[in-house]
Amino acid sequence: MRKLNSLTLKLTAIVLFISLLSVVLVAVFTRYATVSAFDRMLVEQSRTEFIALVTAFYEEHGTWDGVIDAVRMQTQDPFMFRGLILVDQNNHVVLGDVHTDVGQPVSIQQLAQGTPVMLNGERIGTLLEFTAPPPRKPEDELYLKRTNQALLLAAGGASLFALLLGILSSRTLTRSLRELTAATQSMAQGNLEQTVPVRSKDELGQLAASFNRMSADLARANTLRRQMTADIAHDLRTPLTVIKGYTEALRDGDLPATQSTFETMYQEAQHLSGLIDDLRTLSLAEAGELTLNRRPTSPFELLFQAQAAYLPQAQNAGVTLRIEADDALPDIAIDPERIARVLGNLIINALRYTGDGGQITLHARAHPNGVLLSVSDTGSGIPPEELPYIFERFYRGDVVRQSDSGESGLGLAIAKSLVEAHGGDIVVSSAAGQGTTFEVFLPEARG
């Protein structure tokens, strides 16, 4: 929790710092713009009053003589018109400030920057400006002071709002992190199935959703691991119990040493050996260490051999086992024994769920960059909720395991691992009551 609290403080500080910086910058620029606009207003006001004053003088006297005294008499503030210079029609100064002499000529370039003084449509002079704006009056300073106070109050209010917003937003952002931390701590204690609320659709929401999926997958994987351990123990215990019981009976003389007795013990030992071989094959395939003896193989020949191997079993079950293959299929680069086992596992699985009078079809057809083999049956099908899990070790939809079927429960998991070890892919489609189809893609042999 200390780290989360630290993160909350950091986020709050960051939001507050950015907000304060923004407020300060806005306040500075606003004050600068206000003062500049106010000074421009004073300049405009001073210029307007000056032009009105000198124009009235010229209109009354018809000459600029005595304009200096007239302006001084009309002006209560000696600094009001500071920096304003009046030039007559002959481009000579008739009224200037302390830096400009009366009668001094003015260049054409300077006149072009001035403001014409007009009377009855005729230019009677030109107004030039050379210095800073006139000084502010006390009421002007009071106005700017109150404006600054308003800006300070606004900045303070914005800062307080930014602080509250920073605390609220940081707590909102870290809320999901706190929930994720609590959930991961529970997982570390062995409670794998944890769920956190998904409160948004942003990155934090995606993280929460990913965590929930991971937690569900871990919990399910843990359940499957326990189930697999129990299934392996069951499959190992059953033949061992039979072998142990027979050997004890033989040792004690309670059971005669007949050919039937030894045959039963041998079959149980074979079943035990087959389970161990299946586990080893699956482990090597998933680790990428399975040795494959690849060679170009005809897909039709592969299906023909699979049909021949399981035709008696299919006939005993009253099931038709047939082949459908395209013409001129390319050879595929496979280990024939491994893929024969894949097809065998798929056929055995189809026979288990296809009743008397049903049909199993072995297909082979061309596919881009390879060949698509499939095993289709007309059996009972697989419920949709079970389809995502049928390639997992020891997965079974039935509540009671058919322990007398002679199968390890690893057939489909081994088939998937062997196909993927060849660089191929296996998928399944099924509809309850309509049958199941397994499709196996295998790459084409390259010369």
Question: What does this 3D model show about the protein?
Answer:
The chain has three domains: 1-187, no CATH class; 203-287, Helix Hairpins; 295-443, Histidine kinase-like ATPase, C-terminal domain (Heat Shock Protein 90). The chain has 447 residues and is an alpha+beta fold. The strands form three sheets. A five-stranded mixed beta sheet has the order 6-8-9-11-10. It has helices at residues 2-61, 67-74, 108-112, 138-188, 203-252, 259-287, 299-316, 336-353, 411-421; strands at residues 84-87, 93-95, 115-119, 122-129, 295-297, 320-325, 332-334, 359-367, 370-377, 425-431, 435-443. A hairpin with a 2-residue loop joins β3 (115-119) and β4 (122-129). The relative contact order is 0.07. The chain starts with a helix and ends with a strand. The longest helix has 60 residues, at 2-61. It contains nine helices and eleven strands. It is elongated. Helices cover 56% and strands 15% of the residues.
Summary?
About 55% of the residues lie in helices and about 15% in strands. By secondary structure, it is of the alpha+beta class.
How large is the share of residues in beta strands?
5-15%
- The residue ranges in which pLDDT falls below 50 over 5 or more consecutive positions are 399-406
Structural class: alpha+beta
Major sheet size, sense and barrel closure:
5 strands, mixed
Please count the beta strands (DSSP E, at least 2 residues each). 11
Q: Total number of helical segments?
A: 9
What order do the strands of the largest sheet run in, or round the barrel if closed?
Answer: 6-8-9-11-10
SSE run = HHEEHEEHHHEHEEHEEHEE
Our measurement of the CA-to-CA distance between the termini, rounded to an integer number of angstroms, reads 63 Å
Mean pLDDT: 80
